[in-house]
């Protein structure tokens, strides 16, 4: 269990580091190149209290509500992560959009999921770019040169109210716009479009 967690923690570190340190990416390709320790790497006396705090404050509540221990680890192979990063970074560069990072967003698989395990938590990757001084989720697949399409816009088209881009949105999270309500009602009849959001990993639990 400990080894699996460390693998996930290492992969997450690689994703955050990769997006902001292109020069380091290039250096790491050189034979014998020295790679410095990432600034966000933890020591064990930092890591252990974080895991314990989750065990004490989240795990019991989730188990009681769900009737089972929810997902604790999300595994993605190195190749999957590298391919994903290459894909969104290339698309962004082609469209003249500066990618600033990756958000890891909590989600859960619905009862009728076609992949994953129903009723278990997972995470999805969303690329970010800087808009008005903030790192905002955007979709390089649906964006075009000179036109950044945010994830909030795309989700709104499918009737989902994304409220995490601004304090104002979050404070008004229970107020749905008429457009979002209307789009929710017609979601089933809408054409499905590709997104730049990533998922399809292996979760545990269940073991």
Characterization of the model:
There is one protein chain. The chain is of the alpha+beta class and about 210 residues long. It has one domain. About 40% of the residues lie in helices and about 15% in strands. A 3-stranded antiparallel beta sheet has the order 2-3-4. A two-stranded antiparallel sheet has the order 1-5. It is globular.
Overview in brief:
It contains 8 helices and 5 strands. It is an alpha+beta fold and 207 residues long. The longest helix has 19 residues, at 2-20.
Mean pLDDT over the residues: 87
* Number of domains as seen in the coordinates: 1
Percent of residues in helices comes to 40-55%
Query: Using only CA atoms, what is the Rg?
Result: 19 Å
Strand fraction equals 5-15%
| Number of strand segments | 5
């Amino acid at each position: 269990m400990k080894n699996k967690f460390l693998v996930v923690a290492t992969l997450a570190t690689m994703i955050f580091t990769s997006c902001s340190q292109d020069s380091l990416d290039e250096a790491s390709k050189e034979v014998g190149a020295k790679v410095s320790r990432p600034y966000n790497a933890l020591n064990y006396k930092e890591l252990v209290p974080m895991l314990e705090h989750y065990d004490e404050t989240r795990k019991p509540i989730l188990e009681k509500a769900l009737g089972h221990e929810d997902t604790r680890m999300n595994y993605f192979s190195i190749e999957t992560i590298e391919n994903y990063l290459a894909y969104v970074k290339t698309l962004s560069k082609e469209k003249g959009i500066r990618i600033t990072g990756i958000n890891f967003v909590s989600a859960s698989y619905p009862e009728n999921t076609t992949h994953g395990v129903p009723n278990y938590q997972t995470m999805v990757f969303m690329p970010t770019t800087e808009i008005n001084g903030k790192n905002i989720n955007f979709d390089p697949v649906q964006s075009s040169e000179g036109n950044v399409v945010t994830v909030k816009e795309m989700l709104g088209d499918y009737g989902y109210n994304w409220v995490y881009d601004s304090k104002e949105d979050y404070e008004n999270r229970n107020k749905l716009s008429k457009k979002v309500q209307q789009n929710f009602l017609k979601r089933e009849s809408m054409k499905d479009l590709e997104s730049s959001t990533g998922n399809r990993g292996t979760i545990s639990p269940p073991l």
